[in-house]
Amino acid sequence: MKNLIAVGLYLVSCCLMQVCFAQSAPARMAWYQPVDVPSNNISLSVIYDGEVSTLTGQQHSYYLTWEDTIGTKKGYSQQNRPYELHVVVRDRDTIVGRYTGRSYPSTTCYFVTNAKQVEVFFWLDINLWYEPPWTWKGEEHRAQEGPPLTTKEMLQEMSLVEKFWQRQEYAPIHIRMDRSPMNIVDGYDHHQVILHPNPDIVGLDYINKGAMYPDNMPHYGPMYEQVMSLSRYQLDMATGRIKKGQQWIRWKGIRKCCGMEFRIVDPHLLYTDQNGEQYSGKALIRHRKLDPGLFSTDQFQLLEDCLPY
C-alpha cells in the first residue's frame, strides 16, 4: 500500500513539474545567429597585367586566380562538379570584376581599377553547367569519366545538388594593390587563404508557443525562418522603404521580418524606373525610400541571388 502511495505521489509530482515547466516557457521566442557555413581553404594569386584604356581613362588591370579542393573528396573534377566558387571584386566606388559562372568552369577573375585597395567576396554556388553522371551519353564519355552510378548513388547525387541551392557566403578579403617588381600584388602568389563564413549573414528564427497537449507536455506552434544580411541595404517593395538588415530587425522585430520579402539594393548598381530615368544604388539608399510603382521588382535581387558587398 505504501508503495502504491509513493508511486502515486511521484506521478503527481511529475505532472506538476511538467505543468510548471510549460507555464514558465516563454510565449514567444525569437533570435538570430550567423548562418553555419564550413570554412574553405584556397590558394590565391593576384597578378598585375599592365594598363588598359577605358571610358574613364587609363586603368590598371589584374588577374585574380585561385586553386581549391571543393568536391575532390567526393571524386569530382574541377571541370565537372555540382558547385564551384564564384567571386566579385569591388573597390570603394564600383564593381571592378566578377566571376559568376560561364559556359565553362573557371578559377580566374579579371578586373580593372586604379584603387589602392579592393574587397574580394567569394561564395559557393551551383555550377549551372554541371553534367551529372547519369546523363552521360556514349561509351567514350563513360570511359573518360568513370562507370555510371547506381540508382542509390544517383539519389545521393541529386540530394547533394539540391543542398547547394542555398549558397554559402564567405567573409570579404581586403587586398592592398601594392605590387612587387615581379608584378605580384600584396604578396598574393599562391597565398594560402582560409575562407571563413561571413558573420554578416544571419538566420532569423521565431517560434510561437501553441496549445498544451493532453499529456501536459509543452508544445510549440508555428515556426518562422528567414535569412538576412545585417549590413546590406534591403528594400521592402510593399512600402518602398530601404534600411539595413539590422535596422529592419530593430524596427519591425524578428517575427515580422521573417514574413517579409526583402530585395537587396546594391550601391554600385544602376536602377531604371518606368520613365527610363536611371538612379544609382547610392542615390536610392541616400533617399531611404522609393515609389514601388515606378520600379520593377526584378531589378532588385533576393539575398540568395545578389552580389555580396
Fold topology:
Layout: H1 2-24, E1 28-34, E2 40-54, E3 57-68, E4 83-90, E5 95-99, E6 108-113, E7 117-126, H2 139-145, H3 151-163, E8 168-169, E9 173-176, E10 191-195, E11 201-209, E12 220-229, E13 233-236, E14 241-244, H4 245-258, E15 262-265, E16 270-272, E17 278-280, H5 281-287
Antiparallel strand pairs: 1-11, 2-3, 2-10, 3-6, 4-5, 4-7, 7-8, 7-9, 11-12, 13-14, 13-15, 16-17
Structure, explained:
It is a single chain. The chain is of the alpha+beta class and 309 residues long. The protein has two domains: 142 residues, no CATH class; 156 residues. Helix content is 21%, strand content 36%. The chain is built from five helices and 17 strands. Strands 4, 5, 7, 8 and 9 form a five-stranded antiparallel beta sheet that branches. The chain starts with a helix and ends in a 22-residue tail after the last helix. The N terminus is likely disordered.
Keywords:
disordered N terminus, four-stranded antiparallel β-sheet, globular, about 35% strand, 2 domains, alpha+beta, about 300 residues, five-stranded antiparallel β-sheet, about 20% helix, 17 strands
Helix content: 10-25%
Number of helices: 5
Radius of gyration of CA atoms, rounded to a whole number:
26 Å
Domain tally = 2
Mean pLDDT: 81
Derived from helix and strand composition plus strand pairing, the structural class reads alpha+beta
Percent strand:
35-45%
The tally of beta strands, per DSSP, is 17
